[in-house]
Amino acid sequence: MIKITDEILNKYIDSELSQDEIEQVNLALRNSEELQKKFNALKLVHKELLNFREDEVSDSFTNILMKQIVIKKFVLPKQQKYFIASVAAFITLLCLVIFGFSISALISSAPTSVDHSKSIVDSISYMTDGFVGTIKKLFSGTGLSIIGSIFSIIVLISGYFFFEMQKRSKANLGNGHHL
Amino acid sequence: MRNLSDQEIIDSVRKGNDSDYSIIVNRYKNKAFSMLKRMLKNEFEAEEILQDCFLKAYRSLNNFKGESKFSTWFYRIVYNSALTKLSSKKRKTESEMTSVEDHFNLESAYNTDEFEKADVSKLIQEIIGKLPERYSAVITMFYLNEMTIDEISEVMEISISNVKVMLHRSRNSLRDLILNSRLAEELI
Description:
The complex is a heterodimer. Chain A is an all-alpha fold.
């Protein structure tokens, strides 16, 4: 004969008892008014819980959420923004250095006095030729290989940081929910 | 479209049909909201956290391997987000969360004498909100979301027997509340 505890009554309600146990509970219920009262109350709670009503979110919930999804999809993540900005800043800086170098080379090779030139047009033409010449010099032979090496290093470093960033953002998104 | 399974919808969203995600949202929003509302005891916060949960689930859809049901995976996000919110609010939930051996007394928290016979349903609904967070989560998942004990234990990351203990304890306290009320004679 099993002892009719609260746990047994709960198991009875959840149909987790064997046939033999069910018969013993039925017998105990017939013989004890107190137990019957307890069981009926539990059954009432179970019945009411089965009619559990769900609460409703606001009507605009889905629309607001879907709008957020669309917005977030087209907005770059903060990390990615910083990455792109830093690469762009580095390239701009490099271009400025090349430009500055070309200008300084041009100025140093330009005639010292305006008197020596025939006209302003000749002077501009001379400066343009000099600029083109400097650029040509810079992008040929040793100059080109130096620039190529610098760009290769930039690409390698950028690639490394980009890979690390992707790895981190993937880990953040996963948030440990790998079910 | 509405008869599609969760997995079919997820596959469609993964292919780029973002609007299909709204079917999933509509399917789970009220059930998840009910759970969050009872855990956080605050309607506004519950809706805010629910939005975060759906966004988190959307962004993590590629990590969903389909080894368990989508609902189990999603409710786990919801449950964990609620716990994070609760701990960030520095409520005294830590002691409640470590064990199922905690004691709660609904009778001191609720005066059933104010209720009439016809209000029993309302009374029970309200009392569930008075249960400790994890207990109300179990009740909501079991009765409203119609999840199995196994699924609940997967969501809460506790043993099956612990889920049963929590379920039984919640029911017993609701039962005691009814038995000790002046309505007992009328109802039973």
